[in-house]
């Protein structure tokens, strides 16, 4: 019979070594997921007054699925899981594109600047030297 106590101890020690920037990026990414879910709820409420409620509900389902994926990535980062870095980064790249569009062609400079700055903060957090070293697993070589 094998014991998992050693595995639990190494898991605890790895959790303690997770850089704070990872947890902050995870919390900020999770907040984005909550905003997406709130938007989906707003769409469902709007569906009651829409001419074509099926299309609006479909859009709400789409945003719910996307927000769920973003939330999983954010929670993964908060819990110190390395797999959460790539999805969180890809979401930020997509949102930087949205921010660019908001700032330029749509003429909503304030919202574009806010979304862009928020996403850029997460990108910077995910690319600090400590986070890059942690994400690559290089800190485990010290054990």
Give an account of the 3D structure.
- The longest helix has 28 residues, at 20-47.
- It is built from six helices and no strands.
- The protein has 143 residues and is an all-alpha fold.
- The protein has one domain (20-142).
- The mean pLDDT is 88.
- Keywords: Membrane, Transmembrane, Transmembrane helix.
- The chain crosses the membrane at residues 21-48, 60-79, 86-103, 109-128.
What key phrases describe this protein's structure?
6 helices; 77% helix; 143 residues; mainly alpha; single chain
Helices, strands, pairings?
Blueprint: H1 5-16, H2 20-47, H3 53-78, H4 85-103, H5 109-126, H6 129-135
Amount of beta strand: under 5%
Q: Nearest-angstrom radius of gyration?
A: 19 Å
- Average pLDDT number: 88
Number of domains: 1
**How much helicity do the residues have?**
over 70%
State the gist of this model.
The chain is mainly α and 143 residues long.
């Amino acid at each position: 019979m094998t014991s998992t106590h050693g595995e639990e101890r190494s898991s605890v020690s790895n959790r303690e070594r997770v850089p704070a920037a990872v947890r902050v990026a995870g919390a900020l990414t999770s907040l984005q997921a909550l905003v997406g879910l709130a938007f989906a709820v707003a769409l469902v409420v709007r569906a009651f007054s829409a001419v074509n409620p099926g299309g609006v509900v479909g859009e709400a389902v789409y945003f719910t699925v996307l927000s769920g994926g973003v939330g999983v990535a954010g929670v993964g980062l908060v819990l110190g899981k390395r797999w959460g870095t790539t999805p969180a980064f890809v979401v930020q790249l997509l949102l930087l594109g949205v921010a660019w569009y908001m700032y330029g062609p749509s003429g909503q400079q304030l919202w574009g600047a806010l979304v862009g700055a928020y996403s850029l903060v997460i990108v910077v957090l995910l690319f600090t030297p400590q986070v890059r070293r942690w994400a690559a697993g290089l800190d485990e070589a010290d054990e």
